[in-house]
Amino acid sequence: MAGNVWEWVSSLNMPYPYDPKDGREDMSSGEPRMLRGGASGSGDVSFRSFSRVYANYPTYSFVAIGFRCVMSATP
Fold first, then answer.
1. pTM, whole model, 2 decimals?
2. Distance CA 32, CA 34 (A)
3. 33 CB-near residues (< 8 Å, 6+ apart)
4. Alpha-carbon gap, residue 9 to 35, rounded angstroms
5. What per-residue confidence (pLDDT) applies to 46?
């Protein structure tokens, strides 16, 4: 999962522990969304799938920011 691009996630930049009821998943919010996972060229600390290092607006684009596709094993 790590190494190709920073992954956009739906969560706002809020501290752990994760609580989906605290507003971090509010899709109508215009606040920056988290990027996680590290991209090629990331240091050892951020080169992990759980790394949450940057937050930016979804309209921002950069070659090392993207998303990952997940294929479900169940039909």
1. 0.63
2. 7
3. 8, 9, 10, 11, 12, 13, 55, 56, 57, 58
4. 6
5. 60
Supply the pLDDT for residue 22: 92
CA 27 vs CA 14, 48, 57, 58, 72: distances in Å: 14, 25, 12, 11, 24
Q: Which position has the token pair 């996630």?
A: 9
C-alpha distances in angstroms, 72 versus 49, 69, 75?
19, 10, 7
Secondary-structure percent of the chain, ordered helix, strand, coil, rounded to 5: 5, 25, 70
- Taking the chain (75 residues) in runs of 10, the rounded mean pLDDT of each run is 71 86 89 79 63 77 74 69
